[in-house]
């Protein structure tokens, strides 16, 4: 078996576009995604969500929120008058902020290896959009516009409640004041708002989202990443719901400190399955879908629920290849170098004849896409898989992902709120072994066995 | 419930409730739909295997039993309850020569490949079967009452067959391919669907580019049975008149009037799309697919890696390097590619040594896809067939009984392979000229997609070493050219033996194993 190298080092002399990442990097031009729309149309929500998704699948992406630049330039927000179209001083500041943000976009691409930048601002005039387009063309960036159009007053009011009241702009206001001011702010933009024109702008690449996704207009999708973005945007929704993540109940191999395999639940694991069923019933979840992997231990856990469940092969635990069913002690004994390499880069390390976390993310992508489409779902899976899913919802980077804590017999309830995700952790009071191995201090290939095994959790 | 050791009969219910909290048009009976799956539902990965139950090994693949839809035909004010896993009726809309049949056939091929039983119903075909000889465009004149009557009958006959296919024959998606250019006609279809508990999704193709229309006509109309006895100019002239017959009464899908329908409007061969009210997973996948296909002429080259060390030993799987002959093939492949003078060729390989080594010899940039890795033979990795028969005779027989669905213990099935290759196919659709250097099982899956082969045929498609297949989309299908690069290699193709019974003798099992060292 050849020595495992980080993928980037192999075949360096050829322009090798590695597709361990979920997106084959076909095109080297970076992409600027430009948000368009009146305030409270979900631009920032979409920006952040899309960025989180792209980063998770391995496309380095960053949001540049012009409002943020404005808040840093003008320390205190007084009122909507700042946004009046005839407020020349304010106009100057806002233009400067947009320029500063664009400059940072350029830096992100050239110096920080960014691949996608999301330019989050209203960008409601053709003039402003033309400026951004030229900026991008000059530097060889691709541009993709995402316009959100919505006139449903209920949705807008809900938006304002969810995210504007908590904004630094309104932190010391009372709700009614804030609501009134914000509506006036929206009015300031309305008069000069020119939506993307299907005739005049037919050469641009864009998607228009109408009424939170009831309808879409997609124009000139140019490449793979734009196609993926469109697919993603067309699958997300804002209907309130919760996602429950849990591992299977404690398994026989868990007790023995062995990784992988396909063993059944231990007695305590079975107890957990019953406890999980009670917990779920207590939550009174509407139309709950339950998903498991194809492995015995998740299926047995789901069986106790007494509801229909669906099995996904993609939810199977990470394949540890030659290390399947070994204890960490045995791995250290037989594959000390592999063991060290894994500690050096747990995210990218691929077990010989097995998988890496990076591979896992790739195979979980359809699961995430379907989770986005669904509403209330309970996912019964495995440690590494749960870490990947959690990293997606909580926007954890690749370096943290493999060390996220996902203990047995604990349910995580994720509820999207504002721009992120609320997490509630429920430990169902059934004891279980700890399967979490922290990164040891010494990750060198020449380390002692004790140094390697220092962080191994207890087992039988 | 076994842990996926042997193939699992399965079906997957993906019920997506209507998204987005927007008030949707739903018949009243839909307000609390619930997918009826049996408790402990087993399921397969294929995100579109609704009621599709995979038959266990040893039996012939028949129309799957329809599960979970026992109440599907319950009449409720003339409308059946439309369960969330109910069948889908895709309805094309558009003037003649707008690519409706092209889209219908391609979409049908894709859906079948990913495991969704789909069939297209082309009303023009019904018309041809009824009116044996096509005389001229006059048949289509809006004032030709007899013509209209016949066309209406044909549409009804087709819808009848749709109903049969979706309710009794195990179909999951039916593509109703006709012009359907009036609101009235579409309304009839919507009612038909409601009565039967089908979901409806419209696919409209709108195009005014005369070049595109002309090209369409040349590619597919001139060789239509309607025009076998006409010369080209006559045929084109007649067809243009035919289009005119429809133009006056054409009512395109309207943003306002049709806002409660689910549809995608494809404008100018994919420059622009308008998507309205995507209701569920399958519609979302269909939209994604339609937005990724194009008609720019191009070719796809498929080949396997050069002969490998394990190939000559008769061992399956593994990750070995090329033999001397394999390296020779790689070199010749490079020369072949040069002579083809392909514009902007992309080269893709798997992440296994043998494909990478093959690509290296080309001297051009290439991209590695883990998804293109050979099928994982699990416990049988690197074994010879003789050893598999020796160590796992039962598994060996089960595999021969249903090679498509059989999953190696701790390994994969062809069915799994198709699922992991779907993103590759999607990207192949987006791309133009591509050379894919892959593996035997992988190549069979890709080939089956392009050549519309069934799951039964797929695992036995012949994909010999050192042979390049050049696929060029043409008309409604794919032209295949097979180019052998004249470098000898072992044969790795094992035919299905006559005796697939688990009680068979070793010799009967091994009779079709190709020769090796």
UniProtKB/TrEMBL annotation, chain A:
Organism from which the protein derives: Oryzias melastigma (Marine medaka)
Top-rank taxon, per record: Eukaryota
Protein family per UniProt: In the C-terminal section; belongs to the phosphoglycerate mutase family.
Q: Name one GO cellular component term.
A: 6-phosphofructo-2-kinase/fructose-2,6-biphosphatase complex
Coiled coil feature spans: none
Keyword ATP-binding in annotation: yes
| Keyword Hydrolase on entry | yes
Describe its assembly: Homodimer.
The entry's protein name is 6-phosphofructo-2-kinase/fructose-2,6-biphosphatase 1
Automatic annotation (TrEMBL), chain B:
Instruction: Give Gene Ontology CC terms.
Output: cytosol
One GO biological process this protein is involved in is: fructose metabolic process
Q: Where does substrate bind?
A: 304-311, 354
Which terms in the Gene Ontology molecular function aspect does this entry carry?
6-phosphofructo-2-kinase activity; ATP binding; fructose-2,6-bisphosphate 2-phosphatase activity
Catalytic residues per the record? 305 (tele-phosphohistidine intermediate), 374 (proton donor/acceptor)
What UniProt keywords are attached to this protein's entry?
ATP-binding, Hydrolase, Kinase, Multifunctional enzyme, Nucleotide-binding, Phosphoprotein, Transferase
Q: Which InterPro entries match?
A: 6Pfruct_kin, 6Phosfructo_kin, His_Pase_superF_clade-1, His_PPase_superfam, P-loop_NTPase, PG/BPGM_mutase_AS
Q: Where is the 6-phosphofructo-2-kinase domain?
A: 83-297
Q: What family is it from?
A: In the C-terminal section; belongs to the phosphoglycerate mutase family.
Q: What is this protein called?
A: 6-phosphofructo-2-kinase/fructose-2,6-biphosphatase 4a
């Amino acid at each position: 078996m050849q020595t495992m190298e980080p993928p980037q080092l192999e075949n360096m002399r050829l322009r090798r576009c590695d597709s361990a990442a979920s997106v084959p990097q076909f095109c080297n031009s970076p992409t600027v995604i430009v948000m368009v729309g009146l305030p409270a149309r979900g631009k920032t929500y979409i920006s952040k969500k899309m960025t989180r998704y792209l980063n998770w699948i391995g496309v380095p992406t960053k949001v540049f929120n012009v409002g943020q630049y404005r808040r840093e330039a003008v320390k205190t927000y007084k009122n909507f008058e700042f946004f009046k179209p005839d407020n020349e001083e304010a106009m100057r500041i806002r233009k400067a902020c947009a320029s500063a943000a664009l400059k940072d976009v350029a830096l992100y691409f050239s110096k920080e290896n960014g691949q996608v930048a999301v330019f989050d601002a209203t960008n409601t005039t053709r003039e402003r959009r033309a400026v951004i387009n030229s900026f991008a063309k000059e530097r060889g960036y691709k541009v993709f516009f995402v316009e959100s159009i919505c006139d449903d007053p209920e949705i807008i009011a809900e938006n304002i409640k969810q995210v504007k009241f908590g904004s630094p702009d309104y932190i010391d206001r009372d709700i009614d004041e804030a609501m009134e001011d914000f509506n006036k702010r929206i009015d300031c933009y309305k008069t000069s708002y020119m939506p993307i024109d299907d005739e005049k702008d037919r050469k641009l690449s864009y998607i228009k989202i109408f009424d939170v996704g009831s309808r879409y207009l997609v124009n000139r999708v140019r490449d793979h990443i734009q196609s993926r973005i469109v697919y993603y945007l067309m699958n997300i929704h804002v209907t309130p719901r919760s996602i429950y993540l849990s591992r299977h109940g404690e398994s026989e191999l868990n007790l023995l400190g062995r990784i992988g395999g396909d063993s059944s639940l231990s007695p305590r694991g079975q107890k957990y399955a019953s406890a999980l069923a009670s917990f779920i019933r207590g939550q009174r979840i509407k139309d709950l879908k339950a998903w498991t992997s194809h492995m015995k231990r998740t299926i047995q856990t789901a069986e106790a629920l007494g509801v229909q469940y669906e099995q996904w092969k993609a939810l199977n635990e990470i394949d540890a290849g030659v290390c399947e069913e070994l204890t960490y002690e045995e791995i250290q004994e037989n594959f000390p170098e592999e063991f060290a390499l894994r500690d050096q880069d747990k995210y990218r390390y691929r077990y010989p004849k097995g998988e890496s976390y990076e591979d896992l993310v790739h195979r979980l992508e359809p699961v995430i896409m379907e989770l986005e489409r669904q509403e209330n779902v309970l996912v019964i899976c495995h440690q590494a898989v749960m870490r990947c899913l959690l990293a997606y919802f909580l926007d954890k980077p690749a370096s943290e992902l493999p060390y996220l804590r996902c203990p047995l017999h604990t349910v995580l309830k994720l509820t999207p709120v504002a721009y992120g995700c609320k997490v509630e952790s429920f430990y169902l009071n059934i004891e279980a072994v700890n399967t979490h191995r922290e990164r040891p201090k010494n990750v060198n290939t020449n380390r002692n066995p004790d140094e390697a095994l220092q962080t191994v959790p207890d087992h039988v | 419930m076994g842990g996926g050791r042997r193939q699992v009969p399965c079906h997957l219910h993906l019920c997506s409730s209507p998204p987005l909290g927007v008030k949707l048009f739903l018949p009243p009976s839909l307000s609390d739909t619930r997918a009826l799956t049996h408790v402990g539902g087993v399921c397969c990965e294929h995100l579109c295997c609704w009621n599709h139950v995979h038959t266990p090994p040893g039996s012939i693949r028949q129309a799957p039993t329809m599960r979970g839809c026992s109440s599907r035909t319950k009449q409720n004010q003339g409308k059946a309850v439309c369960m969330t896993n109910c069948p889908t009726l895709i309805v094309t809309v558009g003037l003649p020569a707008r690519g409706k049949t092209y889209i219908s056939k391609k979409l049908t091929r894709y859906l079948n490949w990913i495991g969704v039983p789909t069939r297209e119903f082309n009303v023009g075909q019904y018309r041809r079967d009824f009116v044996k000889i096509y005389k001229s465009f006059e048949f289509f004149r809006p004032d030709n009452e007899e013509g209209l009557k016949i066309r209406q009958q044909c549409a009804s006959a087709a819808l009848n067959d749709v109903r049969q296919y979706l309710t009794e024959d195990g179909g999951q998606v039916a593509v109703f391919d006709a012009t359907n250019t009036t609101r009235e006609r579409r309304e009839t279809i919507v009612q038909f669907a409601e009565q039967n508990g089908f979901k409806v999704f419209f696919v409209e193709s709108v195009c005014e580019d005369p070049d595109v229309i002309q090209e369409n006509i040349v590619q597919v109309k001139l060789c239509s049975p309607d025009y076998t006895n006409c010369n080209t100019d006559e045929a084109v002239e007649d067809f243009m008149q035919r289009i005119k017959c429809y133009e006056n009464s054409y009512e395109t899908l309207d943003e306002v009037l049709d806002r409660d329908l689910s549809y995608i409007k494809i404008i100018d061969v994919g420059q622009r799309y308008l998507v309205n009210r995507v209701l569920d997973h399958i519609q979302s996948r269909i939209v994604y697919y339609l937005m990724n296909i194009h008609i720019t002429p191009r070719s796809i080259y498929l080949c396997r890696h050069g002969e490998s060390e394990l190939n000559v030993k008769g061992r399956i799987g593994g990750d070995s390097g090329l033999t001397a002959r394999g390296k020779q093939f790689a070199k010749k492949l490079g020369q072949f590619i040069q002579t083809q003078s392909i514009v902007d060729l992309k080269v893709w390989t798997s992440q296994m040594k043998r494909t990478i080594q093959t690509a290296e010899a080309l001297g051009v940039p290439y991209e590695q896809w883990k998804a293109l890795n050979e099928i994982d033979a699990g416990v049988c990795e690197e074994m010879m067939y003789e050893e598999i028969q020796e160590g796992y005779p039962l598994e060996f027989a089960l595999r021969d009984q249903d090679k498509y669905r059989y999953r190696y213990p701790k390994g994969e099935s062809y069915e799994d392979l198709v699922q992991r290759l779907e993103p590759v196919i999607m990207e192949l659709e987006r791309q133009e000229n591509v050379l894919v250097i892959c593996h035997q099982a992988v190549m069979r899956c890709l080939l089956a997609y392009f050549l519309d082969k069934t799951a039964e045929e797929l695992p036995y498609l012949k994909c010999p070493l050192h042979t390049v297949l050049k696929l060029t989309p043409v008309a409604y299908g794919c032209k295949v050219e097979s180019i052998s690069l004249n470098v000898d290699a072992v044969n790795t193709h094992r035919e299905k033996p006559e005796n697939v019974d688990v009680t068979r003798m070793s010799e009967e099992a091994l009779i079709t194993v190709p020769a090796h060292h």
